Amino acid sequence: MRADSRPTFVFVHGGSSNARAWSPLQNELALLGHRSHAVDLPGHGDRADSPAAYYRQPQDATALAAAPSPMRGITLRDNVLHVVDTLRRLAERGPVVLVGNSLGGLTISAVANAVPELLDRVVYLSALCLSDPAMLTEPWEVVDDNLLDAAAARIAVPGVRDPGVVRLNWRSAHADPALFAELKAAVMADATDHGFRMLLDSLDPDENYSVMEPGALVRADGWGRVPHTYVRFSEDRGITPAVQDHMIRKADELTPHNPFEVHTLASSHVGYFSRPRVFADLLAGLA
C-alpha cells in the first residue's frame, strides 16, 4: 500500500556524470516538500574506481590512458537492474517519477519498458529518447549543429583499451582558457565560470557508449503505458532543440494515444545544475 500521494523523484544522470550533479536540484525540491533520490549508475560516482591519474596534478597523460576503466563490461542491462531495484524500494512509499538527462534518457527508457507498473511518470530533461531502430544505425533527418561533439573530441584521451569506453579529460580545461570557454558554451553556457568549474570537477572521465543498443528503444507495450514528459531546452548546444524535437515527434508516432507532454525552458544542456530553482518549480508542477 502506498503511503504518500506525493511522488519521489528519481534522477538518472547523463554521460560522464553521477548523482552529485543533481544535488542543487534536490535541495530546491526539498524546500518545496518533495522527496528525491539520485542514482549513481554502475561505474559512476561513488560506485566507480575512477583512474587516480585523472585527479592527480599535474596529470600524467600516459598513466591516464593506461588505467583500466570502471566502466569495463558494464551494459545497459546493468543500469536497468540497478535503477529497478531502487524503484521497487521507493514504490512501496508512494508514487515515483523517473527523470533523466542526456545519455541517461536511454536508461530511463529501458527501465520504463521493463517496469511500467512502478512508474507514475517518466521525464526527459533534454535526454535521448529513441523510438525507431533506424535511429541507432542511420543518419537522422535533422540538422544537428551541436557544439559538444567537437569539444568532447578535444578532451578525448587516446589509447584507452577497454572496448566501448570513451575517456574524457574534463579537468584539462582548467589549464586551457580557450578549451574551458568551448566546453562551457557546449554544456552550460548559462552558468558563471565558477559554476562551470564546479561542474567540471564533479564529472567522471569514463562513459560506455555501448548503451546505445536496441534495448534502449522505447516500446509501445512498456514505456508507452507510462505518462511521459519531455522538457525541451531551447538554449541547449549539446542536444540541440532540433534534435530534441525530432525525438519527440518520432516517439509520438509510436504512441499517438499517449503523446509527450512537452514543456520548454530557456536552458543549457545541464541548466538544472546552474539554475535548479526553475527546474524544481517545473517538476513540482508536474507532481
Structural commentary:
By secondary structure, the chain is of the alpha/beta class. The chain has one domain: Rossmann fold (3-Layer(aba) Sandwich). Helices cover 38% and strands 14% of the residues. It contains twelve helices and eight strands. The strands form two sheets. A six-stranded parallel beta sheet has the order 2-1-3-4-7-8, sandwiched between helices. Strand 7, helix 10 and strand 8 form a beta-alpha-beta unit. Helix 4 crosses helix 5 and helix 7 crosses helix 8. The radius of gyration is 18 Å and the shape is globular. The two termini are 19 Å apart. The model has no long low-confidence stretch (mean pLDDT 95).
Secondary-structure blueprint:
Elements: E1 8-12, H1 23-31, E2 35-39, H2 52-55, H3 61-66, H4 76-91, E3 96-102, H5 104-114, E4 121-127, H6 134-137, H7 148-155, E5 165-167, H8 177-187, H9 193-202, E6 206-208, E7 228-233, H10 241-254, E8 261-265, H11 271-274, H12 276-286
Parallel strand pairs: 1-2, 1-3, 3-4, 4-7, 7-8
Antiparallel strand pairs: 5-6
Helix pairs in contact: 1-12, 4-5, 7-8
